[in-house]
Amino acid sequence: MNVLALDIGASSGRGIIGSYTDGILRLQEIYRFSNGYFRMLGGMYWDTAYIHKEILNCLRECKKQNIKLDCIAIDTWSQDYAWINGDGRPIGMPRSYHHPALAKHGGDFEKEMSPLELYKHCGQVRNDFSTLRQLYYDSRFQINSLRDARYMLFIPYLLAYQLCGEMGYDCTLPPIGEVMDIKTGRFSEMLAQKTQAAGKIPPFRECGTILGHTDSSVYEETGYDCVPIACVGAHDTSAAAFAVPENNEYMFVSSGSFAMYGAILEKQIQNDATFSSKLGNSPQCDGKNSLFSGTVGMFVIQQCMKAWKTQGITVSYEELTEYALNHENEACFDFLEIDMSTPDMLTEVSRVLRAVGYHAPETPGDYYVVFANSLSRRIAHDLLSLEKAAERRFERLYMVGGGSQASAVNIRITKLMNRPMMTGLTEASAAGNALMQLVALGELQNCVQAKEVAIRSFPMKVVAI
Predict the structure, then answer these.
(1) Which end of the chain is more exposed for a tag (fewer CB within 10 A), N or C?
(2) Same domain, yes or no, for 208 and 260?
(3) Residues 6 or more apart from 293 whose CB is under 8 A from it?
(4) Do both 177 and 268 map to the same domain?
(5) E-assigned strand segments in 46-102
(6) CA atoms within 13 Å, Cβ hemisphere of 51
(7) Are residue 197 and residue 61 in the same domain, yes or no?
(8) Which among 235, 254, 272 is the end of a domain?
(9) pTM value?
(10) Other beta carbons less than 10 A from residue 388's beta carbon
C-alpha cells in the first residue's frame, strides 16, 4: 500500500511516499520544492497557487514512476488561513504570520479579553500572529474581504480543497491559533463571534477519516482519478509528535523553520504554572494532549544564509555544524528581541547582540555558534519549566524533524538538560501524516496500532550526555 504524505513547511515542500508492507512503514522522498513567503506592498504573503502547482508536479512525478496511490494527505504550518468567497474561490493571497502589521496590532484583542481570560477559554498562550489575532485584524482592517467571505480555511485544508473541493478543519489547528474552546476541542463559537468569523468556519473533521477524493481537474492534470484525501492532523508539529516511536508519555522537540517542543500527555494541564510558563494545550490526532511551547528555529539562520548568498558567500549546514561543534562562546540572544520581518537578518542579529553587550559575529561560523547557543538555551529553559509546571520528569528527550541533524544544537540541549536525547526521523511530519492515512484507509485499526508501526519502523539514535 502506498500513501503520499505532502509535508509542506515554511521553507520547503516535500512529497513523501509511505510504503506499508509486512507491518513496516518505509518513507521515500519523491519530490521536493522550495517554499517561502514573498513581500508585496509592504506585506508578506504565501503563493498558494504556486504550492498547488508543485503538488500537481509531485503527482506527475508519482505517475511517471508508475506509483499506485491509495491515499493523499497534507500537513503544513499553522496559524495562517485563506478566505473563500461564495463562488468557492480564494480571496487574494493568504497572509504570512510574518506580516509586519500583525506585530503592530497583535495586542489589539486585549480590548476584548485579557490574556488570562483567553487562556482559561482556549488553553493557549498569547502570540501576536495567532489565527485569533489575524482574524481580529481582518475584522477591523480587511472589512471588504470579510464581507465577501463565505468560509475561512486553514492553509492545509485550503490545499486539500484545491484537490477535492471539500472543506474542513481538524483538532490540531485551532489550539495553537488561540481559537479553540478547550472544553470541546473545536473552534470556539464565542471567539468566532468576537472576530466576525461566525458562520464562516467549515465543518469539523475527525483525524483518521476521508475528507474527499481528487476531482476531475486533478485527473486531467496528473492522470490520478478519485484518490482519497485523508484528514490526518494537519498541523505539521502534531503529525511529527505522533510519529515519535514511543507509547508512554514523552517529551519531544520538532525543529524546522519554527521549533515546537513539549510533552505528549494523557490529559490536559491548565493552571497558574502553565500560564506563567507560557505553555499551551493542544489535542492530538490520537486523543492525547500536547503541552507545548515554541520559538523561531532554523528560520533565523536560513535568513542569514540567504544574505550570505547575496554577498557571494556559499556555506552549507554541514560546514556550519562542524564549526559550531568545535567552537564555543557565551554569546546568545533572545529570539523575542529579533524582528523576524527584517529583510536583513545579519544586521538584526548583530544589533540584538550588541544591545546585550556582545560583539557582532565576524564569520558565518561565529553566527552559527551564537544561533546554536541561543536556540539550545531557549529550548532547554522552556522544557525544564514544563517539567516543573507538569510536576514530572522525563528521562529522555526525542528530537525529530530537520532539527535532528543539527548536532551542534542538540549536544548543547543535552548538556543543559542533563539527560540523553533520542534523534532521528528527519521526516517526522510526513511519517505521522502517512501513519494516519493508514488509519483512515482502515489498513490500521486505530492509533494504537499506528504507534506500534512507528516503533517497528523508526529506530532512533542516542545523543549521550
Answers:
(1) C
(2) no
(3) 125, 260, 261, 262, 277, 278, 279, 280, 382, 386
(4) no
(5) 71-76, 81-85
(6) 31
(7) yes
(8) 235
(9) 0.92
(10) 12
